[in-house]
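User: My advisor asked me to double-check a structure prediction for MI domain-containing protein before group meeting. I don't want to rely on an old file, so could you generate it fresh from this sequence?
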Amino acid sequence: MPRDGNELANGAGGALETKSSLPFLTDTQRAALDAALAGKQRRAGSESTSSRLLRLGSGTEELRATRSSGGKAAHADPPRSKSEQLHDRHRARSGKGSGKAKKGGAGGKYTWEGAGGALMAGDDLEVDPNDPNYDPDEDEPRRAPVALHAGHSEEVAAFKQAADVILQEYFSSGDAGETGTALQELQQSGLHHLFVKRLVARAMDRHTREREMASVLLSSLYSQVLAPEAVARGLLEAVAAVEDLRLDVPDSPDVVATFVSRAIVDEILPPSFVEGIPADSAGAAEVRRKCGVLLKGRHAAERMQRCWGAGAGLRLAETRAAVASMLKEYVASADKAEAERCLRELAVPFFHHEVVKQALLLAMEAPASQGPLLALLAHMADSGLVSGSQMHKGFQRVADGLADTCLDNPAARERFIAITHQAEAGGWLDEGVCGELAAPPASADSAADASAHSVQAFKAASLEAVREYFASSDAAEVARRLEELAEPGLQNILVKLAVQLAMDRRGRERELTSVLLAGLVPAPLTRDQLALGFTRLLASVEDMALDIPDAAHQLSLFLGRVIVDEALPPSFLTSVLANLRNDSLGVSVVQATGVALSARHAAERMLACWHSAQTTEELRDSMQALLEEYEASGDVGEAARCLRELGVPSYHHELVRRTLAAAFAAPKHAPALCALLAALASSGQITQTQMRTGFNRVCALLDDYALDYPAACTQFEEFQAAGEHEGWLQPLADGAGA
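Assistant: Sure, here is a fresh prediction for MI domain-containing protein from the sequence you gave:
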């Protein structure tokens, strides 16, 4: 019998208290997975990644450069398979570095170099009095002249070359997560400032879209991959090089100043950074002056968020929405030139298959618009705007999802066949590429097709159940539907569909899916069927990556979560490798999951993995909504519950900052807002560290707040004094400024 909804919903989260801070995988499990992955790599043969074996739990393990960058090549002619496209992506970053730890342990995360610096010689270095640079006043044993390592210049040159490859792929794919992984794999954290500098320089020579992408990448990698010192140093070096950059980009001082100002607004640089820019050259002085102008006045933050233009965003959902809007406008106006202009402005040639897919779906749904839409596709193909490979990929995506489309549009198959034949006859689609996929199925009435009919019916019912679950969060209803279907051998289909649907949605749906899978096991969903569902997902992750750029990363989180929730045993990671190709992306997903589960606090991180999937903007919006609701209701308990559901204790300082800012803006709510902070701190929900960090952030911006709210300084001092007196705010250390 299905369990009740509360039991299902709490099935995953109730284990939190039982998880320790130790790695989730035991030494035996790590060793077994290590051996299985090593064997998989040996069998991969000639692939360049086979020499980089996984060493789980060693502290120096790395993810091999076999993670897909989304498989979105700008063009590929003639059309090739999805696996071949992904394989080329894997090879693009192969062979970087030896995989060994750097001498002296240098290059670790958030470090500049090894002890004494990578450029420092040993203590036994002798001073040559005959050296023309010899200074007898500095002839001390501990002040030996700096000597370069023999291969340091080659190491820097290799890093710059690798950084250029990574940036080129990022500007093509827009996948910040993959870019961060590729940068970490270089194991050169001491050179990350060069990556920041090259990112700015490469973006300057491109369009506003790439400049926005560069700003977003800095914000995404900040603190997680790029140390704060590396970001500051890299941008400072970009400022210093502005005169050289001016040769290629005449307005380079303005562009660099915009990058710096945007970084300050994104809170990856302190406001004091501008004061630290040395005015030792005309270009640097101009950058400093321009930053002061950009950051001055009201609404400066809002202006800088749109500094690269309204159309410079790169999120997948926004691009899809822009494509849909373009097609809708074209259907109404039939203006091909305007549609072509809009598509060029999007600057996403690697994503043109989405235009083809949406146009075909719209044509099948509304036959009246079929003629104009096909004429548009033909025009874009003839002009070369949409390449042959992108056209092929768009048709193939529609063909792959034709069974699902037919559930909503029974005539979709016949219409798609007619469109395919028309495109082939017009010469803008290669003949036969979709003929096999578009072939109608045999009659479902015959006994021979009874099994296929059953599969389609189960798939349709599963889709409906999952979509209803996302709307209602009623896990018990899904369990009841599974029992009613009475198809225990097909339950893996529901697993695969649920994960695929959740991947294309937000953190809420992903969390709901993880809770659902854990709650359905062991009945009505068997562990064997859950394992089969994830096996099928791992085998098809290359295809999913074409539609969802970070599919591999998301799948590793889903897999790690079901293991932490004890719905699947850790041994699944080892056993599933036998069902995957040696060079497949699925092997890398298994490897990434093993690395994640071998880290300290792995269980806690996995249980909160989908809360961290929210973007910074989404978290800020959620916290702002929390405060607005609290100001209206005064319900501290509800505010605490909402904050707890966000699951981001490391970002609670943002709520503190916003609470103080709200008090400045509405003094009548100040006592209630102060009481909220006191309650959250007293209960331990906001730690003293987060509370003090939030106050320090406001203190650093107090002069700016005072421009809009003259009483801000006085209010801040009152809040701080009250917090320190009542014990919910840690006093500043002696000598520290307010």
